[in-house]
Design goal:
Number of strands: 4
Shape: extended
Strand content: 5-15%
Strand order of the largest sheet: 1-2
Radius of gyration: 27 Å
Number of helices: 13
Order of helices and strands: HHHHHHHHHEEHHHHEE
Largest sheet: 2 strands, antiparallel
Amino acid sequence: MKCVFEGCKHQTNVYGTFATHKHRKHTPHTSQDFKPGIISELPKEALDFETSEEDGGHSGANYEGSNTNAHYEEEDGSNVIVEYIVSLLMKLESVHNVSVRCIDELVDDLHFIASSAPISSVKSVIVSHFQKNNQTIDDTFVTSLVEDLCKSNPLTAALSSADPLSSSFKRQQYYKEKSEVVEPVEYVLEPNEKRSFQYIPILQSLIQILGKENLREKVLSKEQNKSSTKYESYQDGTIYKENSFYSEELRITLVLYVDEFEVCNPLGTSRKKHKITAVYWVFDNIPHSQLCILGPFM
């Protein structure tokens, strides 16, 4: 493999060697330092698609909401804050693999910070404001007012013991209600040997995917803009095009692939005893340049 940076003649067939070379010779770097042809830009429609996905395609995707002003115009501000907290906790658990115990401790600490920690500082601000305007106010009244303000804080309310984010069980229930999760169904193959398999319903998943208007538009645009001069997938081949089943009307196409993996140490005594076969599928009706986008529909 040749070095991808402009003006460098380094070559190696070991990735670790290349990584070390890049760190020593090309750090820091920008996209302008690469050789021509290394970086290719996505089509404009792909970028628009990614942006729309990040703005939210279903209720679970709203946790990504980047258009804060639009949310505040349409919803109560407290709900928006709760959704951002939910988004943060979901990312910590599912993306960054933070343990449930750590998240529980984080929730407790955030609740303390929002409800108790700011009392003295908020109280001093209120007293100072009245003093600047030559107004006198009872200390008991100020204390009661500050406590009520801290308790009414949406962050405090969302993380209190009575609310849906206070424990792992409540969070899971909240995620399922708000994110439209398609849960797996267990099918028992051999009850005596306790053999079963988990199936995530494809039809329900497709209903959710095609329930988004922007995705339906991408499916139709791909069907209308098929290339006749270059090969991008098997759908550009002669066999696929000449098959009457696919040429009569728009069909939903799924690409299936299988993988096997060990859930235990593959070098230990449990090898080959706990092997799992997984069957994955990819929705192939959208442009291939967008299949790599990690949006909420995947």
